[in-house]
């Protein structure tokens, strides 16, 4: 029986690692399909492809949500819309490498914010890890010389703070306690799409979804499908599946490699050239966030239902199924 254990471990780890790679590449995908004039339209297109599937799969559980759950999920959806907007506009105005690494500061900001709320001090190793990450971000964003950070870098930093607000709200809002994770994600995403659609309808906010769709080439449609299918749907269901077959800490560790894959994708595929200073900063960010995740990890394992009522992966700094971009990535939510 023992020889079979490694096979079972890798059969679970591999899909989770694929999710981390997909999330890391999402910043590059968002840059490939989005411009400053099409951010809202692309967000509507991306998540309109996802919502029908989530509704169809979880229709029975959606009916079980009461008014309290719907209100709570709606509030979370408004925060989620803000995250998507910040991340997507941010990745348009900075490099894919910077976007993926700056947003990883969520893993540092969230424990700090939670510590301030609860009054429980953080261990000294975590504070050292946080300082290392901040130093890395300074070097990374100043790779071409010490100048003011770009607008995109600042937007990604704001997105990292917004993710922290979302994570803490999910864990502390009584109105969403006991809600099914898939249903909660679906309502949040539906709320976010409604916000994007309303903003799209306002004059002077850029292209409509129809105009943006008509202007996309074959390669851009592939990027859009990648964001919708792999970075959102596939990611959500893999997380829900994996945390029931593996340990939360192991899943969180694998998903935590997302910034590494963002840097790999940006440098290898997008031709990002952060310079030696920027590369040193990238290494410090990766080391600091990895060290910080371990230092802030809870000592006891989570119970069997590791996604909890809110669908939050322990230690991940991201909701189950969330992707920054959108990640814009940062979907349900995001990376780009």
Automatic annotation (TrEMBL):
Its main location: membrane. InterPro entries: Diverse_Substrate_Transporter, EamA_dom, EmrE-like. Residues 296-311 have a biased composition (Low complexity). It is found in: Cell membrane. Residues 13-141, 151-290 form the EamA domain. Residues 296-336 are annotated as: Disordered. Keywords: Cell membrane, Membrane, Transmembrane, Transmembrane helix. The chain crosses the membrane at residues 36-57, 69-86, 92-113, 125-145, 181-201, 221-241. It is a multi-pass membrane protein. Residues 325-336 have a biased composition (Pro residues). Belongs to the EamA transporter family. This is DMT family transporter. It comes from Streptomyces sanyensis.
């Amino acid at each position: 029986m023992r020889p079979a254990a490694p096979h079972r471990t890798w059969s679970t780890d591999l899909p989770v690692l694929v999710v981390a790679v997909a999330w890391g590449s999402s910043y590059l995908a968002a840059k490939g399909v989005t411009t400053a004039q099409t951010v809202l339209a692309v967000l509507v297109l991306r998540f309109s492809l996802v919502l029908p599937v989530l509704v169809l799969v979880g229709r029975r559980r959606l009916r079980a949500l009461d008014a309290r759950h719907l209100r709570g999920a709606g509030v979370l959806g408004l925060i989620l819309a803000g995250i998507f907007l910040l991340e997507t506009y941010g990745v348009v105005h900075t490099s894919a490498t910077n976007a993926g690494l700056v947003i990883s500061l969520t893993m540092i900001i969230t424990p700090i914010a939670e510590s301030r709320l609860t009054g429980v001090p953080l261990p000294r190793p975590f504070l050292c890890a946080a300082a290392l990450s901040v130093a890395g971000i300074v070097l990374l964003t100043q790779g071409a010389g010490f100048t003011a950070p770009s607008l995109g870098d600042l937007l990604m930093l704001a997105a990292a703070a917004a993710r922290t607000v979302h994570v803490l709200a999910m864990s502390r809002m009584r109105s969403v306690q006991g809600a099914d994770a898939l249903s909660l994600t679906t309502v949040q995403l539906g709320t976010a799409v409604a916000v994007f659609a309303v903003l799209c309808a306002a004059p002077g906010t850029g292209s409509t979804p129809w105009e943006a769709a008509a202007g996309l080439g074959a390669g851009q449609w592939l990027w859009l499908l990648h964001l919708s299918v792999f970075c959102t749907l596939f990611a959500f269901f893999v997380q829900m599946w994996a945390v029931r077959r593996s340990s939360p800490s192991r899943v969180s560790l694998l998903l935590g490699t997302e910034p590494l894959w963002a840097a790999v994708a940006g440098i290898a595929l997008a031709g990002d050239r952060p310079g030696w200073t920027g590369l040193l900063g990238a290494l410090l960010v990766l080391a600091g966030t990895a060290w910080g995740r371990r230092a802030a990890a809870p000592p006891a394992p989570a119970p069997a239902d590791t996604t909890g009522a809110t669908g939050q992966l322990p230690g991940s700094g991201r909701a189950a199924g969330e992707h920054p971009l959108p990640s814009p990535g940062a979907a349900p939510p995001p990376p780009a």
